[in-house]
Design goal:
The complex is a heterodimer. Chain A is of the alpha+beta class. Chain A is built from 13 helices and 12 strands. The relative contact order of chain A is 0.11. The N terminus and C terminus of chain A are likely disordered. By secondary structure, chain B is mainly beta. Chain B contains 3 helices and 29 strands. Classes of the chains: A alpha+beta, B mainly beta. At the A-B interface, α4 of A face loops of B.
């Protein structure tokens, strides 16, 4: 292998010299990893890196110049190159739900969650554990109880899961959550929709409890708002609806409490926040906040009023779910029968296409943008979502 | 890591398949050309969950094909598989309540007879018959007389009988010459009935307790007759076991083996009479040789939902599978490659092939077909008696395929086709 490489090099070097007499070019052919002296090696490596950096800068400069020139001449600027990422190189998925699909909505009406989601019945959740449960398990359940309204914890005891399902059906629970612990650490979440399924099994990882989050807030007992992001494929849509059916469908905006399930490449990230809108007197020369600037340019005098900031405070817990397999629980049959088997199916992330928001109502939109805030850190300007119907409603409270 | 390269699919021979789904829609998928990409060409019915299709069966005569569909609301519809017209709707439940049908009264087994049932035929009209079986075990044989007009369907009084005293029926099948039917299910052993006399012929016996003295409860999820006659039966159980019964040998299975770890949900026989195709609840699709019980191979692909139905194309070496991942997939049975997949949006419950689809037939021809259908009502139906009408294909296409088949030295059926195309 090594011999081959060196041979290739020896072939290439005279070519490179012939092409242009740049000594830099000749040096590059020697791989620093082949140098045995450490000092020399690191020096060569540093030099290489430096050269690369300079070249990159040069390229960027050229690009900028071309762009500027095009603008000056009034031409179309050269098209921006799109980097190849995992996301955009992904195979097109035809199962992504489209908002104009009538079959989808007919399917929605017929599915197991529709009675809760149409507010015909209020969700009532039973939370239980696996047989052995200690330390972080109960703490996690305590926090789940504070996140999910109308949730009731029942001790598992030595009951069979089927018996518990029977009991829950009798008591008219709509869903059931089983927290599975392994080595005193919660590691799986089983969500069962009652009475006839489906059942979803999630691996739970990266659990951070409330008390371990710095500057955490304490949630109020208001009904939370719910944000479901990127549940776009058919299977994802179904899982999204399942999660949605755990929460009551009438959020109390006064509570300013938001629960987020963010799906990214089959990992569902759970976050729980409180938010607040603060009218902030912006410093007039604000070079970083470009949005505020643009507002000032267009509206002139209104600047100080418009610059409202949303602040987030995480309430916890924080965890990640993945790898769902969902199947139908058939109580009559007394066993599982597979319904969906999601291991091979990916819930693809399509940027910007959030169908769940379409199904949810407009009241979700401000919190939708909060996710954007999450991505850019806790602080961001709220002006980016001005103009949504809910805007005035929220502002009334903060004033 | 997501896959970033598209999987290329070679495409299918010209075929036409009908799929049925949980919302009661019937979708027609057609592939044209030698390497056609199948597409949805038609959709019949409005999405409604009470119309969920439980079973479907096609009698694909050349002239007057008919498609029977049993729905969740207790109705059996007879459709024209060419244009989706509903000929007649029959209510099967005696309770008569529209809308709510008790769970155990659903029609799970349905078979449309391909051959005319002569003993029930009357003068000046011809009759078609179909067999239904509810979950409770009420099997009934109904015949429908076709009057001169299209609308003139009348349904005779069904002759019904009960096939099981306990348990519930989950699968049923009718053999090639349509004189015997089998039923089986949860808590109900496989039993074979003579359809001419409506009498029970044979009942299976559950296998012996194993060396640990463990008894496996009876739970058949799917079953089919194997070969030309009614002697051999292949059944799949919920405990992922495949069993071969031989009526002439014994009441216990002559062979049984396990396959993977989820319930066997669909079993279909090949036309050669010994190969079978299995689909499981976890989306595994495989083919077995039932003479030896050996696995011939798995169909590898990205099936991600329980397989609910498998159909074998009568002429081309193609099978179709569908299930809860809402894809209809076509597979080559020789190479076991995925030919193509169609996303159909709903949980699919059943798939059938329309064997009479010809490539030259275009969408405009359906009207012509209709006329043909109307005419045929007046005619004496003779050619319907042969079970599978031989289809004439494009010779170029045919030649290519046959070369491959010949090298493997199989099936006189295909040889027949060569004769056809050369003549």
């Amino acid at each position: 292998m090594g011999g081959k490489r060196s041979k290739a090099e020896s072939e290439e070097t005279p070519l490179a010299v012939a092409d242009d007499e740049n000594p830099n070019n000749k040096k590059r052919k020697i791989l620093p990893s082949l140098i045995k002296n450490k000092e020399k090696r690191s020096a060569v490596h540093a030099k290489l890196k430096h050269d690369k950096k300079i070249e990159k800068k040069k390229k960027a400069k050229l690009r900028d110049a071309a762009h500027k020139r095009a603008l000056e001449l009034g031409e179309e600027p050269p098209p921006k190159k799109i980097p190849r990422t995992i996301e955009n190189a992904r195979e097109f998925d035809e199962t992504v739900c489209k908002p104009d699909d009538e079959e989808l909505f007919a399917g929605n009406d017929a599915d197991e969650f529709s009675s809760v989601l149409k507010r015909e019945s209020t969700p009532k959740i039973l939370i239980t554990t696996c047989r052995f449960n200690s330390t972080r398990g109960p703490a996690f359940i305590e926090e789940l109880l504070s996140v999910i309204p109308n949730a009731h914890y029942y001790k598992r005891g030595t009951y069979d899961l089927k018996k518990i399902v029977e009991y829950a059906n009798k008591k008219e629970f709509t869903s059931m959550i089983v927290v599975h612990t392994n080595r005193r650490e919660p590691d799986a979440l089983l969500i069962i929709n009652l009475p006839d399924g489906p059942t979803a099994h999630f691996k739970l990882s990266k659990l951070v409890l409330r008390r371990d989050i710095k500057n955490h807030g304490n949630p109020t007992s208001h009904m939370p708002e719910l944000v479901l992001n990127n549940f776009t494929t058919r299977l994802g849509h179904r899982v999204g609806r399942m999660i949605q059916s755990l929460f009551p469908q009438d959020p109390n905006f006064r509570g300013r409490r938001v629960v987020t399930f963010h799906n990214q490449r089959d990992f569902i990230f759970f976050r729980h926040h409180r938010y607040i809108f603060e009218g902030k007197e912006s410093k007039k020369p604000d070079p970083k906040n470009k949005l505020a600037k643009s507002v000032k340019n267009s509206k002139g005098e209104k600047v100080s009023q418009e610059n409202v900031i949303a602040r987030l405070q995480e309430c916890g817990p924080r965890f990640t779910l993945n790898g769902f397999i969902s199947r139908t629980w058939t109580l009559a049959a007394g066993d599982f029968s597979y319904d969906l088997f999601g291991c091979g199916v990916e819930v693809h992330l399509v940027k910007g296409a959030t169908l769940i928001t379409y199904i949810h109502h407009l009241w979700l939109l401000p919190s939708e943008s909060l996710i954007e805030l999450l991505r850019h850190g806790a602080w961001a300007s709220y002006t980016s979502v001005l103009g949504y119907p809910t805007w005035s409603f929220v502002r009334d409270e903060t004033e | 890591m997501p896959r970033t390269t598209a999987l290329e699919c070679p495409g299918c021979p010209p075929l036409r398949a009908l799929t049925f789904d949980a919302l009661g829609l019937v979708k027609v998928v057609e592939a044209r050309g030698t390497q056609g990409i199948p597409t949805v060409v038609d959709r019949w019915g409005a999405p409604d969950s009470s119309q969920c299709v439980l079973a479907a069966s096609i009698a694909d005569h050349k002239t007057n094909p008919i498609l029977a569909v049993s729905r969740k609301n207790g109705q059996v519809e007879l459709l024209n598989p060419l244009n989706g017209d509903v000929h007649v709707t029959i209510k099967t439940s005696e309770t008569g309540a529209v809308g709510h049908i008790p769970e155990d009264d659903l029609v799970v087994g349905l078979h449309m007879f391909k051959a005319e049932r002569t003993e029930r035929m009357e003068l000046s009209s011809k009759s078609m018959a179909f067999l239904t079986c509810t979950m409770k075990g009420n099997a009934s044989l109904r015949s429908i007389k076709v009057k001169d007009t299209l609308a003139g369907f009348t349904c005779s009084e069904p002759s019904s009988w009960n096939v099981c005293t306990a348990g519930k029926i989950l699968c049923s099948s009718v053999d090639k010459d349509e004189s015997h039917a089998l039923f089986g299910g949860k808590g109900a052993e496989i039993n074979v009935w003579d359809l001419h006399e409506c009498s029970k012929l044979w009942t299976a016996k559950s296998p012996r307790r194993n060396s640990l003295d463990i008894f496996v409860p009876t739970w058949f999820t799917t079953a089919t007759f194997l070969g030309r006659d009614h002697r051999k039966i292949v059944a799949g159980t919920n405990y992922h076991q495949v069993r071969l019964y031989d009526i002439s040998a014994q009441r216990r299975p002559v062979m049984s083996f396990d396959f993977r770890e989820s319930p066997i949900k669909a079993v279909t026989e090949d036309v050669d009479g010994y190969a079978i195709y299995l689909g499981t609840g976890a989306g595994d699709l495989a083919t077995f040789d039932m003479r030896t019980g050996k696995l011939l191979g798995c169909f590898r692909g990205k099936c991600s939902g329980s397989i609910r139905s498998i159909a074998r194309h009568p002429d081309h070496p193609v099978i179709a599978s569908c299930g809860l991942d809402s894809y209809l997939r076509f597979w080559d049975i020789k190479t076991r490659q995925l030919l193509s997949a169609v996303f159909l949006k709903q949980h699919l419950t059943s798939v059938v092939f329309d064997a009479n689809f010809k490539e030259e037939e275009s969408a405009g021809n359906t009207g012509e077909q209709l006329n043909q259908l109307k005419e045929s009502d007046h005619l004496e139906v003779e050619d319907n008696n042969d079970p599978l009408p031989v289809k004439r294909k494009k010779s170029s296409k045919n030649g290519k395929r046959i070369k491959r088949v010949k090298s493997k030295k199989s099936k006189d059926r295909v040889q027949d086709n060569t004769d056809d195309s050369s003549s």
